[in-house]
Amino acid sequence: MVPSLRSVTHAAYTVSRMAPSRRRHAIAVVVGLIATLAAAGAFQAPGRAEPAPEPEPTVSASPSTPPPPPRVAVTARDIGIGAGYWQGAAETYPLTVVVRNTGAPPVDAITQVFLPVGVKRAGITARGCTVDGLSIDCPLEPDASVTVTVDVTVAPGLWRDPPTGTVRTKATATGPGADTRPVSAETTFGLDFPPGPPTPGIDLSVSDPFLPADPADPNARTETSTLEVRLANTGSVQADGAVDVVTVAGVSIATVPAQCVTRVRVSADRERCQLGRVPAGQRVTLQFGLVVTRAARAQAPLLGSVHAALTPTGQDTVTVVASYRVLITDRPIDDAGRATDSDPDVTVAVPRDGAGIGGARAGDHAGSNIGQALSVLPMLISIVGVIAALAGMVVLSLRRRMASN
After folding, report:
1. How many helices (H) and strands (E) does the chain have?
2. How many other C-beta atoms are found inside a 10 Å radius of the C-beta of residue 104?
């Protein structure tokens, strides 16, 4: 135990009143007490400093879950052109666009429609949206969708080279703590013209090519299909005929019919079959082999077009166009129907020797010669077998006679 300052002071006072004989020893004791107090810090001010508080342990906050990103999808139907287009009627045709919120958060979707040259806006309907020209701003809850209808007019000569348009949607998530990074989606649309124009002297119809619902080889990169085109010369004079087939991205022409005298690649997506002379009143049926990629199949139906032209001698060229779709179905959808021998308007072309269209060339009998050679072969084998049997019998008879002798 360390002595206090008060006890030292009291001891010094007591020593001062002692007898001289005992004072010397007492002074030594007091000096020792003072040294002890000095070492223990007893001469400092009384009181004890408070210990420093220990730091409280810090709790690390767990990372927060990021907000779900926005998602959006957009689809557009091809613009169907009515038959009144060929008569010059003042008609409008609808372009239908569907925008869907496919994500978890609500979004603000801004859709822009880019019409091709020759197609003009006549009006827009979009319930619950704000429309500014060809820009449509729509708020969409999760899994909600909105249908936008754009009424358009189509220029008279646009059927000669049908263009395509584009629809682009940009969506941004809304709400507190939402992911503000925008997402976008895009699609295209075309013009679906009816067969025409109804020009005297020419008729054109097509059958839609189709792909089976279940591909024969799911791992194949491409599939094949057939586009059937029927061109008739309904005029009173013969004419030079040509057929142009226009395809979309992912679809190409692999084979052309035998009736094509010349095959011309007009552009990357257009090939021409020159037929030569088509007699008056004759219908020509053409089958084009198509190749469709797996990526294009996923975008089906795929819209293409067929352009046919007849040029009578000394007259202007008459041209018609028809649209076709590459469909995924179990059987083709053919609104026009196939040509038959009972067609009252035209006669079906029958191949014949020397015919300029669809007929065999004179002197081309390679198939029949092979058939005749194959039919004679069994007879020759039978004759050889009979001769071999007779020779065997003769040899056996001679051996028996030699043995008996």
Report:
1. 4, 21
2. 15
Give 188-226 pLDDT, tens digit per residue: 999 999 887 766 689 999 999 999 988 888 888 999 999
Give the single-character DSSP code of 360.
Answer: P
Return the CATH number at 338: 2.60.40.740
CA distance linking residue 8 with residue 42, whole number of Å:
10
Phi, psi dihedrals of residue 304, rounded to the nearest 5°: -135, -175
Could you tell me the residue range of the domain that residue 123 belongs to? 72-192
User: Torsion over CA of 119, 124, 126 and 129, rounded to 10 degrees?
Assistant: 100
pTM for this entry:
0.55
Between the CA of residue 306 and those of 12, 82, 196, 275, 325, what are the distances in Å?
Answer: 130, 17, 11, 15, 11
Q: How many domains does the chain contain in total?
A: 3
CB neighbours (10 Å) of residue 382? 10
List the alpha helices (DSSP H) in 137-290. none
Q: Looking at the structure, tell me whether residues 78 and 186 fall in a common domain.
A: yes
pLDDT tens profile 265-322: 999 999 999 999 999 889 999 999 999 999 999 888 999 999 999 988 667 889 999 9
